[in-house]
Specification:
Largest sheet: 7 strands, mixed
Structural class: alpha/beta
Number of strands: 11
Shape: globular
Number of helices: 7
CATH superfamily: Spore Coat Polysaccharide Biosynthesis Protein SpsA, Chain A
Distance between the termini: 33 Å
Helix content: 25-40%
CATH class: Alpha Beta
Radius of gyration: 17 Å
CATH topology: Spore Coat Polysaccharide Biosynthesis Protein SpsA, Chain A
Length: about 220
């Protein structure tokens, strides 16, 4: 069973004050995406890496691959209009059997504990579809400037990546979504829409995704 990591890296980072997309910003002299890639390149559970990115950053990614010796990167493919298209382009570019595993992880989540990755892959081998998430610990409310109601946090999770799926399952789920013009915010939503059970595994509070300047400052401290 082959394990391929797919890293969608087409985001432009509108909420970050930078001329570069957030995943290419340097922290301590190293690109944010390089911290992410090194996790997968070092993992004994991952066989290869495919990155989906805007063509204007292909040369930068080639430099990153050479500079840090990321020998598991086999392809950099063009990203699509949104994340869903980018992941589909990556899947369409590889040769994989139905039972092989696809690990999708955000380029801007640079602090992924190896134990979270290992557990997600092991669980996906058994169940076919896995999403990493952490249970909500704060009080949750619904409202618009004023409180309308409070939510029961016992059944609420914050979704993260990695998300791991058998290749055949994810590919069929994405084709179904495309036919239905269904746009999901992540791959687990597409697989759930396909009608397959998605198993929740523990994520990590430090597995932060950089979406704004505050997140970037937190990541700088953690790194």
């Amino acid at each position: 069973m082959k394990v391929t990591a797919v890293i969608p890296s087409g985001g432009i980072g509108k909420r970050i004050n930078s001329s570069l997309p957030k995943q290419y910003i340097q922290i301590k002299g190293k690109e944010l995406i390089a911290y992410t890639l090194q996790i997968f390149n070092a993992s004994i559970h991952v066989d290869e890496i495919v990155i989906a990115a805007a063509p204007e950053y292909f040369e930068l990614l080639s430099d990153i691959k050479s500079k840090y010796g990321f020998n598991k990167i086999i392809k950099v493919v063009s990203g699509g209009k949104d994340r869903q298209d980018s992941v589909y382009n990556a899947l369409s570019s590889i040769s994989a059997h139905s039972e092989d595993l696809i690990v999708v992880h955000d380029a801007a989540r640079p602090i992924l504990p190896a134990s979270v990755l290992e557990n997600a892959i092991a669980t996906a081998k058994k169940h076919g579809a896995v999403v990493s998430a952490i249970k909500a610990s704060d009080t949750l409310l619904k409202g618009n400037q004023t409180v309308e109601s409070y939510l029961d946090r016992n059944d609420i999770y914050y979704v993260q990546t990695p998300q791991v799926f058998k290749f055949g399952l994810l590919h069929e789920a994405m084709k179904k979504a495309n036919l239905e013009n269904f746009i999901g915010t992540d791959e687990s939503m597409l697989v759930h829409n396909y009608g397959h059970k998605v198993v929740i595994v523990d994520g990590s509070p430090i597995n932060i995704k950089v979406t704004n300047n505050e997140d970037l400052e937190i990541i700088k401290l953690l790194l």
